[in-house]
């Protein structure tokens, strides 16, 4: 992971507030490469990951999905999109169907400024 990629989470939290992690889904690409190497996403994530990535996965509740870059298999593409939509529904449920809004951000910013 590059330093720029590590800065993404910090930047998101600065821009949108710390509550943004409740709405994050981590999307990995290159699923076809992992498959060629005979590895699953779970095996990859169980390996020697950078500390930053471990923290992000914990913060977002392990909500991850893997997409292939090169597959021509339409069924596989549909399945991957379906899995993403299920994760989105899960995020909505966990957040009581309340979308992240500017209003939430400004409210949290006010509270942080008071402290």
Can you tell me about this structure?
This is Immune-associated nucleotide-binding protein 8-like. With 115 residues, this protein is mainly α. The chain has a single domain (3-108), classed as 3-Layer(aba) Sandwich (Rossmann fold). The chain has helices at residues 3-16, 31-36, 41-45, 51-59, 74-94, 102-114; strands at 26-29, 64-67.
* Alpha plus pi helix count: 6
Q: Report the C-alpha radius of gyration, rounded.
A: 17 Å
Strand order across the largest sheet: 1-2
Number of domains: 1
Computed structural class: mainly alpha
Pfam families: AIG1
Family: Belongs to the TRAFAC class TrmE-Era-EngA-EngB-Septin-like GTPase superfamily. AIG1/Toc34/Toc159-like paraseptin GTPase family. IAN subfamily.
Keywords: GTP-binding, Nucleotide-binding
Protein name: Immune-associated nucleotide-binding protein 8-like
Architecture blueprint of SSEs:
Elements: H1 3-16, E1 26-29, H2 31-36, H3 41-45, H4 51-59, E2 64-67, H5 74-94, H6 102-114
Parallel strand pairs: 1-2
Task: Provide key terms for this protein.
single chain, 115 residues, mainly alpha, Rossmann fold, two-stranded parallel ribbon, 6 helices, 2 strands
Question: TL;DR of this structure?
Answer:
This protein has 115 residues and is mostly helical. The chain has helices at residues 3-16, 31-36, 41-45, 51-59, 74-94, 102-114, and strands at residues 26-29, 64-67.
């Amino acid at each position: 992971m590059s330093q720029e990629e590590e800065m993404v989470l910090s930047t998101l939290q600065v821009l949108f507030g710390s509550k943004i992690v409740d709405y994050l889904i981590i999307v990995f690409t290159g699923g076809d490469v992992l498959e060629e190497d005979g590895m699953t996403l779970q095996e990859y994530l169980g390996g020697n990951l950078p500390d930053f990535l471990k923290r992000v996965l914990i913060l977002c509740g392990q909500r991850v999905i893997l997409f292939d870059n090169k597959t021509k298999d339409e069924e596989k593409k549909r399945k991957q999109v379906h899995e993403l939509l299920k994760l989105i529904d899960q995020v909505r449920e966990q957040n009581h169907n309340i979308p992240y809004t500017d209003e939430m951000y400004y409210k949290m910013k006010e509270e942080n400024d008071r402290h």
